[in-house]
Amino acid sequence: MYGLSPDLAVTAHGPIRLVELNRPGKLNSMSEGLHTALAEVWDRVAADADARAIVLTGRGRAFSAGGNFEVMTRVQRDQAFRDQNVNEARRIITGMVRCPVPVVAAVNGPAVGLGCSLALLSDIVLISEDAYLSDPHVQVGLVAGDGGALVLPLIVGLARAKELLFLGRRVSAEDAVRLGLANSAVAKDAVLDEAMSLAQRLADMPVQALRDTKRAVNLHLEQAMSTVLEAALTAERESMHSPEHVAIVEKLISRG
């Protein structure tokens, strides 16, 4: 649906659009095609007159493992591709914040790096009891520019956001709910069904009232984007070819 990469499957279930990261054998880590599709899908759904709610999830046992070494290596060496990657990251973030259709994240497994940002930028987050959130950008020598620096301080405050971003620690489902990073923890085999049921409830609500409420609440994110996003993305772009990042990725690749 929408003519996007097969790495992002979009299917219609009545008024609900089920958006599934579709690289289960790679834990839904970012391929070039998946990253591009995530930059495009939000405008496509916004233009879909029949769409009333979105469920975002990952196929297989992960929500998304975030970046992958193949893409990271190309980003390090290819300036044009690096610029494309940052521009797409900007479109992913702004697209999610400005998409008028409410997004329910069904976090069915680990949500790491950009995967964590995808979950946190959703409107309502259901997380599997055995899943976790983590943003380890700093641990691989990257600035946490594609979402973490923007949204985490608004949810958990500055001190906790710095802890999570500096240390990249895993946040369990229980702690995610306690910290306000997720709305509820759900049994693993029920998270998608619960998300679809919730999305149907949203789809049945008055359209204009719901969409304008989302827009009004997201003005807090818009304000943060106006001050934080460009600086964060610029810093991340520079870190993408820094000696520290290159050395860390080479070391991790050599470990297999």
TrEMBL record:
InterPro entries: ClpP/crotonase-like_dom_sf, Enoyl-CoA_hydra/iso. It holds the Pfam family ECH_1. CDD domains: crotonase-like (cd06558). Coiled coil: none annotated. PANTHER family: ENOYL-COA HYDRATASE, ENOYL-COA HYDRATASE ECHA15 (ENOYL HYDRASE) (UNSATURATED ACYL-COA HYDRATASE) (CROTONASE)-RELATED. This is Enoyl-CoA hydratase/isomerase family protein.
